[in-house]
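User: Can you help me understand a structure? I only have the sequence.
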Amino acid sequence: MILRRLWHSLPTALLGFSCALHFITIVLYVRLPIRFAAITVFPIWVWGITGLSAGIYCYLFHRARFSLTLILIWVFTILLLSDEARSLGRLGLEPMAEGPAPPYAGSKVLRVVTMNCAGQADPTQIIGDLMPDIIFLQEIPHAYRLKQLVDKVFNGNGDYRYHAAKRCAVLVKGTIHHEIEIPGYRSQLVAVEMRDGRQLELLNIHLQSAATNMRLYQRDCWREHIRNRTLRQIELSYVLAGLRQKTAYPRLPAIIAGDFNAPANDTVYRIMDKEFTDAFGTVGTGWGNTYHRALPLLRIDHIYCSDKLTPVRSRTFKRPHTDHRLVVADFVYR
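Assistant: Let's start by predicting it. Here is the structure, written out as tokens:
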């Protein structure tokens, strides 16, 4: 008798749980309060699948009232708010192909690549066939390969700056005039002149490493995520201030790329939204998540541009011997 009552009350409990989870998820992912950073570090579809599974169970095994409605609400929420759905839904855009960048609407494009080389990746083997004009690298295992990469991709007509302590580098098909030091952080700021004479400001980003503690039942886990998100916001604000104060931006176009160590829904990107455009978020096609390479669940590697550039194509590529997928974006000058 007791088991029968529990069986009949189970759909009501599950639907109530799913409705409550939906309300909490919407509030948290729209407002992104820092106190709940340990929750919103997950993509929204993680919680969406949980609530959706409860609704599907109630519909299939109990034909519970409102279960189908709840399923549709969850599906709509995931499609509307998840970062992955936007790029997968751009079916009308021509996907970026392997090989050199073709012109866009008759105009020559500026191709940019960013890649975290962790895992002993050889950038000469990974990037060469894409023939980019600008390359941002983080966690370079072997600096001697940079000259090889310049010779292979730019036919020797390029330049690069490598920072040994930060293990990062910027390579360009042109000339790097100078580099501005950003003390205390793993970011690079360089002024370049491309072979066509155009000048740009480039900011190579490698922000504070992500918090990996997922023991949500522990108070220290919540504190760690709050501190981690706060430090990342402080760091990005600091390096962006250097770009504004020590370079010719916004008179010259600027490109910011690298490993932000934060999922695409993180509040750290709101610092950039008013001034810069996320290339993949705007025109990217396919699965855009970059970490981990084998099973990419988070989009933490990005390419941003200022308003003097327009992104026209973007895509992520899977390559061996690195735990990140690389991001490629094509731009035209406004």
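Now, to help you interpret it: The chain has two domains: 2-81, 110-333. The chain is about 35% helix and 20% strand. Let me know which part you'd like to focus on.
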